[in-house]
Amino acid sequence: MKTAQKILLTALTLFNEHGENTVTSVDIAIELDISPGNLYYHFKGKDSLVNALMKMHEQQMQKILSREKLDTLHPEEIMYYLYLLIDSIHVFRFFYRSPADLAEKYPSILRPRQHILSSLNKQLAFLFESLSKRDILIASKADRALMVDLMSLIITQSCQFDELNSHMDSTMQRYHALSLMMVSVLPRLALSDEQKQQLEQMLDSHDFMRDASTPSPLDFA
After folding, report:
1. 161 phi and psi, to 5 degrees?
2. Number of Cβ within a 10 Å radius of residue 137
3. Where are the domains of the chain?
4. Are 65 and 81 in contact (CB under 8 A)?
5. DSSP H/E element including 25
6. Residue 98 phi, psi dihedral angles, 5° rounding
7. How far apart are CA 146 and CA 90, in angstroms?
8. What is the spatial distance between Cα 217 and Cα 221, in angstroms, rounded to a whole number?
9. Rounded to two decimals, what is the model's pTM?
10. pLDDT tens track of the chain, all 221 residues?
11. Which CATH architecture has domain 1-44?
12. What is 53-214's CATH topology?
């Protein structure tokens, strides 16, 4: 792995775990066991790091928010796709912690972050409309609009709620977010009681993990 990639992934890990505001460039250099000068050679301070991470996040979400095959999802596949959305945002979750403060400190990230959120909302709206048209999701247009707001809120903010109110690790935070979403979605799916029970059992047992095909930040570095 190239030094620049190592720096970015280390910065991302530290920002996610401790918050961008508490992590310095020196902290990142110490974590990597390199000199601050070596880090500065690749990234001229935290502004440069944060902007590079946002670019990675944009590229990641462009791939995740593709609508290819989205209108052919089977009911049992919806849970997997929602988990994929949660996972993708969670990888860059520091961008959604105290978003107003972060945007004030790094104004250049405001527009791309707004674009990501807008694209996420449109993707969820498209998904729910497609499911409704195929009589898989039982929800009115007004209900679907509220569901989009709710799903977006859970995807972007539930990890912050968990960090404040529980001691869940990163994996459990993802499953908690998915559980919150499925409480709203599952009763509206046109599935048999047996099919719903199977999905609930899979969710409760965490009987699926991040798929090998899920892009990692390295894919976009």
Report:
1. -60, -45
2. 21
3. 1-44, 53-214
4. no
5. helix 25-32
6. 50, 60
7. 22
8. 6
9. 0.86
10. 689 999 999 999 999 999 999 999 999 999 999 999 999 999 998 999 999 999 999 999 998 998 888 888 887 788 889 999 999 999 999 999 888 899 999 999 999 999 999 999 999 999 999 999 999 999 999 999 999 999 999 999 988 888 777 777 888 889 899 999 999 999 999 888 888 888 888 888 776 554 434 455 555 44
11. Orthogonal Bundle (1.10)
12. Tetracycline Repressor; domain 2 (1.10.357)
Place of tokens 């799916």: 189
Eight-state DSSP code of residue 153: H
* Cβ-defined contacts of 93-102 (< 8 Å, 24+): 93/16, 93/159, 93/160, 94/12, 94/15, 94/16, 94/19, 94/20, 95/53, 95/54, 95/57, 96/156, 96/157, 96/159, 96/160, 97/19, 97/20, 97/160, 98/19, 98/21, 101/21, 102/20
